[in-house]
Amino acid sequence: MDVSEPASISSGIAARYATAIFELAKEAKSLAALETNLDDLSAALDASADLRALVGSPVLSRAEQGAGIVAVADKMGLVPELKNGLGLMAAKRRLFVLPQLIAQLGEMIAEDKGEVKAEVTSAKALSKAQSDNLAKTLKARIGRDVKLKTTVDESLIGGLVVKVGSKMIDTSIRSRLDSLQNAMKEVG
Predict the structure, then answer these.
(1) Torsion-angle region of residue 146: left (phi > 0), alpha (psi -120 to 50) or beta?
(2) Within 13 A of 135's CA, how many CA atoms are on the CB side?
(3) What's the pTM?
(4) Integer Cα distance of 177 and 184 in angstroms
(5) What is the dihedral of CA 76, 35, 164, 112, to 10 degrees?
(6) Mode of pairing for the β-strands spanning 145-152 and 115-122
(7) CA-CA-CA-CA torsion for 86, 62, 8, 53, nearest 10 degrees?
């Protein structure tokens, strides 16, 4: 059995729903609101174990899942295209692909705006000036506007890890120490 198959199936399901929701939102001229909704929904999914249980529970019936996700969508004020898409996904037992749907919709919106997303991990929170400078530097290198998604990982000790698409730039002190440690092992 190919272990990548379930991920591929989930990604394919998410892509179909993402395309439909994106096209409907674009037609309704609500892409900006959809982008904000996706950020909010992603944060809620990260923060709420109850929401993750609602999305992933095989025990809940389709009707219970549908009612739950529509109630969440109403409470969060999600655009109708996303709300209806989530309701349909619940009716078809496809809510388990919600994290992939959020990611793919985010990529589609960024592509539509001519942006590229960069995931930046730093040892301490970046200041506004540092973030702006990094975004400007990446824009000069890539040739497109860059939207930064920053996280903090104190184990890096210092420096940054920047991921843009399939490229990764690791200037962290932790990776340099790891490299030094490997070099020392080879010598000794």
Answers:
(1) beta
(2) 16
(3) 0.73
(4) 10
(5) 160
(6) parallel
(7) 80
Residue by residue, pLDDT tens for the chain (188 residues) are: 445 456 677 888 999 999 999 999 999 999 999 999 999 999 999 999 999 999 998 899 999 999 999 999 999 999 999 999 999 999 999 999 999 999 999 989 988 998 988 999 999 999 999 999 999 999 999 888 998 999 999 999 999 999 998 889 999 999 999 989 998 898 86
List 118's β-bridge partners, or say none.
Answer: 148, 164
- Position 140, amino acid: A
Query: Left (φ > 0), alpha (ψ -120 to 50) or beta: where does 164 sit?
Result: beta
| Residues contacting 169, CB < 8 A, separation 6+ | 160, 161, 162, 163
Calpha distance 134→131 (Å, rounded): 5
Single-letter amino acid, residue 137: T
Structure tokens that stand for 21 in this block? 């929701």
CB count within 10 Å of CB 177 equals 11
Tokens of 150: 């920053």
